[in-house]
Amino acid sequence: MKRKNWLGWVVGLGVLLIGGVVGRADADYDQALRTAPQGISLDNIFVPGTTSNNQAAVVGTTNPAITGTQAAKVNNGKKQFGAIWSTADNVFDLTKDQSASMWLYFGNTGKKAADGMAFVMHNDENGLAATPTFGKNVSGETLGVWGVDTDKKQTTPDKLATMAIQNSWALEFDTHLNTSTNYGNTGDADSFDVGIAGPHIANNYPAATSSYQMVRTSTLLPIYSVGYYATQTHEGLLQGDYTLLANGAWHHLSLDWQASTQKMTYTFNDKDPVSGTAQSGLQATAKLDLNQIDPKNTGQVRWGFTGATGDSYENNLVVIEEVPGLVDARATTRLTDTTTNQVIQDGDRLKGQDAFKLEYQLAYLSGKQDWQDVQAHLQIPDQLTVDAGKIIYADGSTATVDLAGLTDNQVTVKLARALSATNATATISLTGTANNLKTPVTVDSAASTFSAVNGVVTADTPVFTLNPTLELYAASLSGSSVQLEANEDAVMKGLVVVPEGVDLTNADMTVHTTLNGKRRPDFQMTAGDDPSSGRFDVTVAAADLQSGQNTLITTVSDPYGNVSNEVKFTITVSRQLVFQTVADRSSFEETTLTGAYQRVKRTLDWQVEILDTREAGAKWTLQVTSTPFINQDGQPLAGTLSYHEGTDRTPIGTTPITISRGEAQDADVVTNVVDDWDDESGLLLEVNSSALASEYSSTVTWLLNDVP
Fold first, then answer.
1. Is the pLDDT confidence value at 11 over 60?
2. Do residues 64 and 270 lie in contact, with contact meaning Cβ atoms separated by under 8 Å?
3. What is the DSSP string of 211-242?
4. For the segment 78-125, what is each residue's pLDDT rounded down to a tens digit?
């Protein structure tokens, strides 16, 4: 008696627990529809499969933030088969590049979820009635597309492959691991995932024997027996933990078919389910064998989603965004700082208080239908204040954007005109001003959705930094000018002041200078004793200064692109008339005496350069004197140092002789006196016939005169 009561309580508890699970699942189902993302209407595009056991259906969504969206309910209970297929008018064209996108929901039960869904393309002769051959019981392991493993005696997968949807390719989203490997579980459709670590995404051909392997196992008790179970080959495997699929969130899937290469690229979780912004996601590419899915070379396949459940289940829902060939549309964004005329890309900077233009560019590329009644749900990036907007169509017509409903940087704009082959583009252009802050902020990407009953596309704005616009004030602490002698360095002590409350130090600031209109290297201010003093020095080397007046212009910038006022500092260098270069020693060519009069030429080591930095018009003369040439014994040379100019000859002695004249110009002038001399002019040494061989020297003195 007690034993019966104990069993009764166990049964009662089991019923109570089962009822509780169903209640949570129903609440999850309702929550999924309340949070469904924007999609399209499925009317006349998708229909449920026609098998008697098909539980799939098209249902309405209940999210008040979206419009015109229907969902495909594939499964939402135990022991169910579900399939929803494209209509005959919306098959997948394998001869053209195609793209499709959708949102998938796998429930919220994590590790307890079962069994998942599959995206399927097929040319099964059963058409809308395509289904695995289940027999009496639905097998969740098949996900509604793979073969049914119910015969423990089959040693090859030939029979198993015939029980799948024929002429098909499947991309599975498997939430439940089927990993039984013992004899007692052979032939129980629970071994496809042997060797897989967790929920996963993979692809293969359900009707191909190569997609399965039969594994032999045996038992000794009660008698020796042999059985076989089937495992599945998972191509393009993407794995994760139990938050990968059944985590109570919608998951985005993008499909990209390249007809020329016959490759299908699938990207999972490539959009954030809350904000809708793009993210990297998980991606793989499959090279499809069209003989497997289109053996009659029709160039097209029916496509859709299947699912199956056993003793456990999950809520499986699909919201379609883009149907291949129905409407092929694209949306892009462009943000321009119209103050600087710079297009803002990811990672760029926008200045506070700058004017901007934010453009949402919609393009109709092709399709069976026009893209009409498009509603643009615009999410404007934070820190941008919009004050006007308009819509510009391809044919030049325009419309004003009504901003009355703009709240929290969101506004919905309805396009009054359809986009089609004859009116293919529309640009929603918003203008306004960037907000101004005291510190920089990173403005995240904002996703906007452009939806109609036959197509949904999204577009993201760039991630950018909004920098504050600050008024920087720079000044000279050295006054407005300085007077220097030649060859002195100039130093201007400067100060920059930033607005109160702005956290900038000397190390953040850069000094920019020009000298006489020529840009000099920038430099960073140093911290010094007080890193926030704002003080800095600008040093100009004497070699960089010209005689007379020099103009130094200084500005200071911060890391945010703000630049201070210009500080003008005048540096006046005293003017001068000086020898720029005079050779310490000069010589004449070594000469063999002939006993006759000879004229000895100069060597190349003569240098006399005059620098004149005085006001234009000032004059100068150059004079020269010379002592007699004598040798080391004090014996004089029988000869004369003379200055030759044309046919004139002037002997040089101790009386100064003028040999050159010059005049100052507007710019600093260097006169090379020796440059105009040749072998027959300038200072030459004349040797008489009585000269004796020896080495002679003389002191030549140059006299530079500032003359009226």
1. no
2. no
3. GEEEEEEEE-SSS-EEEEEEEE--EEEEE--T
4. 999 999 999 999 999 999 999 999 999 999 999 999 999 999 999 999
The per-residue DSSP string of 433-451 comes to EE---SS-EEEPP-EEEEE
**Furthest-apart CA atoms within the chain: distance in Å:** 159
Strands 481-484 and 567-573: parallel
Dihedral angle computed from the Cα positions of residues 502, 507, 512 and 513, in that order, rounded to the nearest 10 degrees: 120
CA angle 547, 550, 554 (to 5 degrees): 155
Pairwise CA distance, residues 636 & 369, whole Å:
115
Task: Give yes or no for a contact between 10 and 18, defined as CB atoms under 8 angstroms apart.
Answer: no
Task: Give me the phi and psi of 101, to 5 degrees please.
Answer: -145, 150
Name the average pLDDT for the chain. 92
CA end-to-end span of the chain: 141
Q: Are 329 and 400 in contact (CB under 8 A)?
A: no
The position carrying tokens 């166990």 is: 10
User: Helix, strand, or coil here: 683?
Assistant: strand
C-alpha distances in Å from residue 376, one per residue of 324, 336, 448, 475, 485: 21, 20, 7, 51, 71
Residues 558, 509: Cα–Cα separation, whole Å: 5
Q: What is the chain's Cα-based Rg?
A: 46
Six token digits for residue 87: 């209509």
The answer to whether the beta carbons of residues 531 and 554 sit under 8 Å apart is no
Of the candidates 146, 121, 69, the one whose C-alpha atom is nearest the C-alpha of residue 324 is 121
Which pLDDT score is estimated for 288?
98
Which residue type sits at 413?
A: V
Tens of pLDDT, residues 144-194: 999 999 999 999 999 999 999 999 999 999 999 999 998 888 888 899 999
Please calculate the CA angle 581-585-586 and round it to the nearest 5 degrees.
95
Task: Copy the structure tokens of residue 84.
Answer: 């929803």
Task: Give the C-alpha distances (Å, rounded to integers) separating 165 from 92, 120, 461, 472, 627.
Answer: 17, 9, 43, 72, 119
Give the lowest-confidence range in 21-25, 239-243, 405-409, 480-484: 21-25
Q: Which residue's entry shows tokens 């160039």?
A: 299
Q: Is the pLDDT of residue 542 over 90?
A: yes
Encoded amino acid at 320, one letter: I
The pTM of the whole model exceeds 0.85? no
Confidence class of residue 668 from pLDDT cuts 50, 70 and 90?
confident
